Amino acid sequence: MADTQLFDFKVKSQIQDYEVHFIDSLKESLDSSLVNGDFIIIDEKIKELYSEQLDEVLDGFRFISIEASEKQKSYEGVIPVLNQLMENGFKKNHRLIAVGGGITQDVTAFIASILYRGVTWIFYPTSLLAQGDSCIGSKTSINFREFKNQVGGFYPPKDVFIYPGFISSLPYSEIQSGMGEMLHYFIVSGKEDFDFYKSRYQQAFSDKSVLTEIIGRSLAIKKEYIEKDEFDKHIRQVFNYGHSFGHAIESLTNYQIPHGVAVSFGMDMSNFVSVKMNLIDDEVREEIREVTQYIWGDYSVSGLLPAELMKALSRDKKNVGNQLGLILNGGYGKVFKKLVDPDDTFKAWIEEYFNDQS
Ligand SMILES: NC(=O)c1ccc[n+]([C@@H]2O[C@H](COP(=O)([O-])OP(=O)(O)OC[C@H]3O[C@@H](n4cnc5c(N)ncnc54)[C@H](O)[C@@H]3O)[C@@H](O)[C@H]2O)c1
Ligand SMILES: [Zn+2]
User: Fold this and answer.
1) pTM above 0.70?
2) Rounded to whole angstroms, what are the CA distances from 230 to 34, 199, 344?
3) Angle (nearest 5°) at CA 133 between 102 and 251
4) Which of 7, 150, 203, 230 is deepest in the core (most CB within 10 A)?
5) Hey, what domains does the chain have and what are their CATH numbers?
6) How far is the CA of 344 from the centre of ligand 1 (A)?
7) Mutation test residue for ligand 1: of 73, 99, 103, 183, the one with most atoms within 8 Å of CB
8) 287-343: pLDDT as tens digits
9) How far, in Å, is the centroid of ligand 1 from the Cα of 126?
């Protein structure tokens, strides 16, 4: 097991290597890293909540505040941002500074990757999901019509600054989401990492320093995979664990269930199917379920219709022909991709899963 990374570290990228820094003071970090010409793209909620630390900085720089909505993360949403950048004299040698969660990240990274064929961007992730997962990995997707994350590429920031203080203002649902999203790294990585997570997760919900430890370890695990497969061609694909079912759940619930919570249900469904296929013992599923149940708390999938879920699963981009491209669990550290026929047996498993939930 690699060391927990609570110290600065570098991520190797085929586009450009970048650094991740853990910072104690937001204001000091912004004061020392921003330079003339920088343009800040900030989540409007963060601008309000952190006005004390940010107002002075924002006075000295050009900025745009955006709404963290999936609608903002689209061509239509990106156009007004591009307009403002152009109208305010943003040039190729200037930099974009993103301050926000995954949505602000995707909007900024997408623009940074296309504007003048690429400008430098820097990221201050503010949500748990962005701090413990999306801030590294180079992905830059926006939505197209009702389809999520369908347009984009790979374009890493130059620096990532993680300020754990941001976690204090997150609603509980965002902590659940971030914890659910990070959990999948720990199962994919192996038993030792799962035990690491399992021995800390309850405390992490209320103790920022324990949570920061989990963030550090989550990023360390992800780093290993993305450095080997930045463009998601082979081994990185195991991080879709929980996501085929998770995306289906998100679409069936109109995104009322936060992404990472949907992923924790998705992992449980994947484990359920894996037990049915004799890939893992039920004890493994139960051991993981103890954790996922805590994460999803009051959220429930019991009202969802199995037939609708099958329909949503059939639209997954990992599918090949009629077969579902699922990420299944062969044990800790042995998560793998498998093509599965959506036959009557499979459909019966899905029905059984939902019957068990009610
Ligand atoms: N590029 C990638 O690699 C990648 C990876 C995973 C997810 N994503 C994308 O990220 C998005 C989800 O990320 P997210 O959950 O960070 O979304 P988000 O940016 O919408 O943030 C979630 C909510 O929390 C609020 N928020 C953020 N930080 C806060 C803070 N410190 N205090 C109080 N409120 C705060 C936001 O305003 C928003 O309402 C999705 O669009 C997903 O597709 C991208
Ligand atoms: Zn995810």
Assistant:
1) yes
2) 28, 30, 37
3) 60
4) 230
5) 9-169 (3.40.50.1970), 173-203+230-357 (1.20.1090.10)
6) 37
7) 103
8) 999 999 999 999 999 889 999 999 999 988 889 999 999 999 999 999 999 999 999
9) 8
